[in-house]
Amino acid sequence: MSEWTMKQPGGSNFRNRRLGVALALVAALYVGAVIVFIILYWPGEVFMAKDSTARKLPQGPLIEAVMRPAFGGGNPPAPPVRPNAPIGSNAWLGVLMFLGAEAMFFAGLIGAFLVFRVGSAVWPPPFQPRLPLAVTGVNTIILLASAVTVRLALGRTQRGDASRSVFWLSTTALLGALFLLIQGSEWLQLIHFGLTVSSSVYGGLFYTIIGFHALHVFGALVWLAVVWLKARRGGFTKRSHVGLQVCAMYWIFVVALWPVLYGLVYLY
After folding, report:
1. CA 89 – CA 70 distance, rounded (Å)
2. What is the C-alpha to C-alpha distance for residues 39 and 92, in angstroms, rounded to an integer?
3. What share of the chain has pLDDT > 70, as a percent?
4. Poorest-confidence range of 21-25, 97-101, 166-170, 203-207?
5. How far apart are alpha carbons 15 and 241 in whole angstroms?
6. pLDDT reading at 55 higher than 80
């Protein structure tokens, strides 16, 4: 039987609620672990603390006379103190706050989905097609592979190998574009079988959640294209490649978010 045919899963409402709560907790822990990994273990120039620009004044007769205790008594002034090092670059902190906002946005969408999902004894609703699990599973592997290639591109840049970095960035862009093309073909099939935004709450939630993720992948793909052009022109070096790093951070976040959506929307 084709995976596009109309099949209705069974199961009790109480069991669906328990499973929904468990999946929500797993999804929250997963996304939180991804953000913690980016904060703590992201290599390279994330922590861009530089040495202090304070310099010691040259010692001379005039300086020694000024620093010598006079009639007022007391000790000479203390030497310049090294300022506290920043925890990260401005670009890194900015992207990190943006990722936190993105995580909360998708958490709201997932919460709305779970409210309707656990409240329905039958899901999907009657006369609605089942989602294509096998094709989307292969598409998930494609998107996960793009996270590996973008990390390879960053690693090559950190080693000073600009040509290989451009190659891996091109591979990442191709994988991302392929993901969107396969997803678009799935949507055409689902629309043909009657699943639209207005067909039911099921269709509306599906196109809202998956559509917003696809929009984020498209935005990350545009950003990656800009980074690719700069890398091809030699704009990133071994010591200066913050633009590539923050782009890779966002790309990996979008990729890491997809297994959560696939598990909840397609499999649950």
Report:
1. 44
2. 9
3. 67
4. 21-25
5. 49
6. no
Q: How many CB atoms lie within 10 A of CB 63?
A: 12
In terms of residues, how long is the chain? Answer: 268
Which residue in this structure is represented by tokens 């904060």? 39
Q: Give the sign of the dihedral formed by CA 199, CA 201, CA 204, CA 206.
A: negative
Assign 3-class secondary structure to the chain. Answer: CCCCCCCCCCCCHHHHHHHHHHHHHHHHHHHHHHHHHHHHHCCCCCCCCCCCCCCCCCCCHHHHHHHCCCCCCCCCCCCCCCCCCCCCCHHHHHHHHHHHHHHHHHHHHHHHHHHHHHCCCCCCCCCCCCCCHHHHHHHHHHHHHHHHHHHHHHHHHHCCCHHHHHHHHHHHHHHHHHHHHHHHHHHHHHHHCCCCCCCCHHHHHHHHHHHHHHHHHHHHHHHHHHHHHHHHCCCCCCCCCHHHHHHHHHHHHHHHHHHHHHHHHHHC
Confidence of residue 123 (pLDDT cuts 50, 70, 90): confident
Answer yes or no: is pLDDT of 17 > 70.
no
The domains of the chain, with CATH numbers, are 13-49+85-267 (1.20.120.80)
> What is d(CA 225, CA 231) in angstroms, rounded to the nearest whole number?
10
- Counting other chains too, the contacts that 254-257 makes at CB distance below 8 Å and 24 or more residues apart are 254/213, 254/216, 254/217, 254/220, 255/143, 255/144, 255/146, 255/147, 256/30, 256/31, 256/34, 256/147, 257/31, 257/34, 257/106, 257/213, 257/216
